[in-house]
Amino acid sequence: MEGDQVAGHIAEDGEAIEATLTRLESKRMQADDAPERMERNRATDQTEPEAPPVVPGLLQPAVAPGAPLGPVTAAGYSAPPCSGMAIVSLVLGIFSILTVLVVWVVAPVAILPAVPAVVFGYLAQGKIGRSGGKLGGIALAKAGMILGYVGIGFG
Asked: What is the model's pTM?
């Protein structure tokens, strides 16, 4: 009778060992397959980033999460790029005023940067007007022209 019990325990132990080996083998196969599964999951996971919660009374960002960032005005619209001629007009206008202030004895020298400031200002205004809103910087062009006229006036 004891032999039958021992044989039964051995059979049970053998079955338990086989079940453990089967579980270990399946885990090993899963571990081997893990990088491929992760890659498949990454390829199929096209979820959008979650938007932050809206809190009343706090300023909210003007762009959606994940949207490309750029110059954004208060209304949430992108500002058009500034005209290069408008920037040149302003720089030359400032330079003409500085020339008047620094070299006041030889004031006619201020005309040298002042005249191009006025010319670039007019050209920039025309180009900005014809662009249909695709170019900005009208205020820079006007400021450059005004400073250029002041430089001419002192020159």
From this structure: 0.51
Give CA–CA dist 27/19, Å, rounded.
12
- The residue that leads in pLDDT, 43 or 155, is 155
| Number of neighbours of residue 145 by Cβ within 10 angstroms | 23
Q: Which residues fall within 8 angstroms of residue 143, CB to CB, at 6 or more apart?
A: 89, 90, 93
78 φ, ψ (degrees, to nearest 5) = -75, 140
